[in-house]
């Protein structure tokens, strides 16, 4: 899909450079291009993702985002880094001593593992075909609603 898009850039979406995160219009384009069915996008540059995500030797994170019509990114997940030395290379734990417990989890034994999170409101938004997330959220924040 990327090669076809680059060969015909007149699709109304400005290309971004490798290493930059996907903007909302890029995500919408991908879903629209795939006939509005949910699409998994995977292997982002690790510089765009949190330090705890596992990456390969080419510095691509083992992660995914699930994109869907209306809801945008409704789910995201990754493999977690289980090697203490790799974590030390990615993050300066000396400066942030309040996170030393996280290194201890790896030091004293862990197993390869992963995780994901689903945005419940975004999932509902996609299923129901509602364009504005504020119409889904039970208690949306609006300007001037809080009278403190």
UniProtKB/TrEMBL annotation:
Keyword Transferase: no
GO cellular component: mitochondrion
GO biological process: asparaginyl-tRNA aminoacylation
Entries under InterPro entries matching the protein: Aa-tRNA-synt_II, aa-tRNA-synth_II/BPL/LPL, Asp/Asn-tRNA-synth_IIb
Keyword vocabulary terms for this entry: Aminoacyl-tRNA synthetase, ATP-binding, Ligase, Nucleotide-binding, Protein biosynthesis
Residue ranges of domain Aminoacyl-tRNA synthetase class II (D/K/N) in the record: 21-142
GO function terms (MF aspect): asparagine-tRNA ligase activity; ATP binding
Protein name: Putative asparagine--tRNA ligase, mitochondrial
Species: Araneus ventricosus (Orbweaver spider)
Gene name, Swiss-Prot/TrEMBL: Nars2
């Amino acid at each position: 899909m990327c090669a076809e898009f680059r060969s015909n850039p007149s699709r109304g979406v400005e290309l971004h450079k490798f290493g930059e995160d996907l903007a909302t219009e890029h995500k919408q384009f991908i879903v629209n291009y795939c006939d509005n069915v949910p699409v998994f996008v995977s292997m982002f540059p690790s510089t765009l993702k949190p330090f705890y995500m596992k990456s390969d030797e080419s510095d691509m994170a083992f992660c995914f985002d699930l994109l869907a019509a209306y809801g945008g990114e409704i789910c995201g997940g990754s493999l977690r880094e289980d090697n203490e030395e790799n974590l030390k290379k990615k993050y300066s734990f000396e400066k942030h001593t309040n996170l030393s417990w996280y290194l201890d989890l790896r030091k004293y034994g862990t197993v390869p593992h992963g995780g994901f999170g689903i945005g419940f409101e975004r999932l509902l938004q996609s299923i129901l075909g509602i364009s504005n997330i504020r119409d889904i959220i039970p208690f949306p924040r609006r300007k001037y609603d809080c009278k403190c």
